[in-house]
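Assemble and predict.
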Amino acid sequence: AKTKTPYELIGGEETLQKLVDAFYPKVYSDPRLAPLFQGDMELIKEKQRLFLTQFLGGPPLYSDRYGHPMMRARHLPFEITPSRAEAWLDCMRQAMDEIGLTGLIRDYFYERLKLTAYHMVNTDEPGS
Ligand code: HEM
């Protein structure tokens, strides 16, 4: 039998849609993150769902539409400090809790997001 991708194991499009729907309202209302998120929430949800699809080994939906992900480069216009990376990850854990994403696949996914979030850091903490 063919080995399942993390994308399939997590529940595919349906799960990722629920996750972004739970995640972005938290991000937009988090005082640490809200100053950075001025754009259309529905558009960023859609881009993130497409990105996470390919991040988890599903079809390359983000690249097909927007080109090479280059996520660190795409985040350079925004001041991403270590505490903002923590805030992003806090919102993600809460969103995973809210949709009932549990078990090994959650732990695997979260650990990869954690690495990616710290990789996005491009600015020191103010006053440090
Ligand atoms: C876009 C912040 C981490 C994936 C953005 C935008 C901001 C942002 C401000 C632009 C929103 C807009 O266009 O309205 C942050 C902060 C992070 C973080 C503060 C903390 C570390 C991540 C991580 C991922 C990610 C870990 C992926 C796993 C994306 C994607 C986009 C995006 C796919 C859309 C890029 C595009 O315009 O095509 N992020 N981000 N971000 N972020 Fe993040």
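Residues 33, 36-37, 39, 44, 47-48, 51, 55, 66, 71, 74-75, 78, 80, 84-85, 88, 113, 116-117, 120 surround protoporphyrin IX containing FE (CB under 6 Å).
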